[in-house]
Design goal:
Number of domains: 2
Number of helices: 15
Strand content: 15-25%
CATH topology of the largest domain: Rossmann fold
CATH class of the largest domain: Alpha Beta
Radius of gyration: 21 Å
Order of helices and strands: HHEHEHEHEHEHEHEHHHHEEEEEEEHHEH
Shape: globular
Number of strands: 15
Mean pLDDT: 86
Largest sheet: 9 strands, mixed
Structural class: alpha/beta
């Protein structure tokens, strides 16, 4: 799939096909570690309405518009009630819409868009319990590949982008041109061309005072935020390396039906086609790689990797790999070992591990300082304050909305684009067997997985990559 596909330029078409992390309402692919949901309000209760607590703690990039006047919308002055449109009505999109309206007062869902009518209907039904926070009428339900254009034109202030990752760059570009604030699920592209588009859109957001927050919820988790702040403050000494993992079992798969065209089946079964998902190293493992970039102070300088397709070899599994192992090298020769695997019957591990000159840390809330660096071994553990635990999947929306209302819009676009490209370069190395440098993949690679058309018709499946034979583009 690293072979470049001829086709239209990114941004010409769009899709609302299902969820970025759940294929059109199918079972969850983005399996969340248990610890992610058992966190507290601590860091965020102290955050002002002026900006995200995570941004104040250094966990997220901001747009450079701090202190600017309140951000206006296309409806004129800052509205008391924020109107949200959803593009991608699968399970993750439906969940994100719910999280948005429950995170903050005076927020309502007013428009829904998806590739498939059945998904719009199921999403609307699932959100009925929101009561008067759901203001979707029949004339604000849109389907087809151009549904995103109609959602953006439906009088919304914020749009949630939750389709398969391939469509993220074009949808973000359209949202910025329409002057809408954005919550977008991760990852944000499947190839370097898409990543560069996202960065350009993020720069436009900064110019226009628009907010972009992405679904890397660890950046809005108080345990991660406090632990990473301690790491970056030198508590484990100089960071010299680490490891990260997303190893899990099998996921859902959609068998092809006779009445479906190639394109429809691939969109329904999107996890298994590189042009739609970026492969699971991009679609899932970007979470862990984002944490490692956070700890290392930026993206890697190069990588070399391996991987293959050993268990999921049936045609229904498209053209992606089922396992990866990538060595990332960061500035100063520091190295991070990365593993991503989706195979049943194997040991699972979803975590990160940061190594310093005086100790090591689990970024989710544990620090160990070695006795050779200090007078005795010291262990710090994040303690959840008393009170109702908070869900970081909700907090990320709360932070987005608070920043909009304060006129200090968060802008996480460039950072998540870099973490997405970190995952993409690892995939490219594993697919081709070649070492890949950051400078080349960011600035020179012309890999563009855009298909030749966006319509329900025939669409040949690219061959499964073969290291040493697949070309680096």
């Amino acid at each position: 799939m690293e072979l470049q596909q001829a086709g239209t330029q990114v941004g010409d078409f769009g899709n609302g096909g299902g969820s970025e992390a759940v294929s059109m309402g199918l079972p969850v692919s983005d399996v969340r570690p248990a610890e992610a949901s058992d966190v507290s309000r601590r860091t965020f209760l102290a955050a002002s309405a002026a900006a995200s607590a995570v941004a104040l703690a250094g966990g997220c990039a901001t747009s450079g518009t701090r202190g600017a006047p309140a951000v206006m919308t296309d409806r004129g002055k800052m509205p008391d009630r924020l109107r949200v449109g959803l593009i991608g009505c699968g399970g993750r999109g439906t969940g994100a819409a719910r999280d948005a309206v429950t995170s903050s007062p005076n927020v309502e869902i007013v428009a829904l868009g998806d590739l498939l009518d059945e998904r719009v209907k199921s999403c609307r039904e699932a959100l009925k319990d929101l009561g008067d926070k759901l203001k979707v009428t029949d004339d604000r339900c849109f389907t087809g590949f151009d549904n995103y254009k109609h959602v953006l034109a439906a009088g919304v202030d914020i749009v949630i982008l939750a389709t398969p990752p391939h469509f993220r760059p074009m949808h973000l570009k359209a949202a910025m041109e329409a002057r809408k604030h954005v919550f977008m699920e991760k990852p944000v592209a499947v190839d370097p061309v898409g990543v560069r588009s996202v960065i350009a859109s993020s720069e436009l957001a900064a110019e226009r005072g628009l907010a972009i927050v992405c679904g890397t919820q660890r950046r809005h988790d108080p345990a991660y935020v406090e632990t990473l702040n301690r790491i970056l403050d030198g508590e484990i000494g100089e960071v010299v390396g680490g490891q990260c993992y997303w190893n899990q079992g099998a996921l859902w798969v959609v068998e092809k039906k006779a009445e479906w065209s190639d394109m429809e089946w691939q969109c329904r079964n999107w996890l298994y086609f590189c042009w739609l998902s970026g492969d699971h190293i991009v679609e899932q493992h970007v979470h862990n790689l984002d944490v490692m970039n956070w700890a290392m102070g930026g993206p890697p300088t190069k990588c070399v990797g391996t991987g293959g397709r050993q268990v999921r070899i049936d045609a229904k599994f498209g053209n992606i790999f089922d396992h990866f192992a990538i060595e990332y090298e960061y500035s100063g020769g520091r190295r991070v070992m990365s593993m991503a695997r989706q195979m049943p019957g194997c040991s699972d591990r979803v975590s990160e591990h940061v190594v310093g000159t005086r100790g090591w840390a689990d970024p989710n809330g544990t620090i160990h300082v070695d006795k050779h660096g200090w007078s005795k071994e010291k262990t710090w553990k994040y303690e959840q304050p008393e009170g109702e635990p908070v869900n970081p999947y909700v907090v990320e929306h709360k932070d987005l909305i608070a920043s909009i209302r304060a006129g200090r819009p968060l802008n996480e676009g460039k950072r998540i684009a870099e973490s997405t490209l970190t995952a993409i370069m690892g995939r490219m190395s594993a697919y081709t067997g070649r070492e890949v440098s950051w400078n080349w993949v960011m600035n020179a690679s012309q890999l563009d997985l855009t298909p030749p058309h966006y319509e329900f018709s025939s669409l040949p499946i690219a061959p499964v990559p073969v290291p040493g034979e697949t070309k680096l583009i």
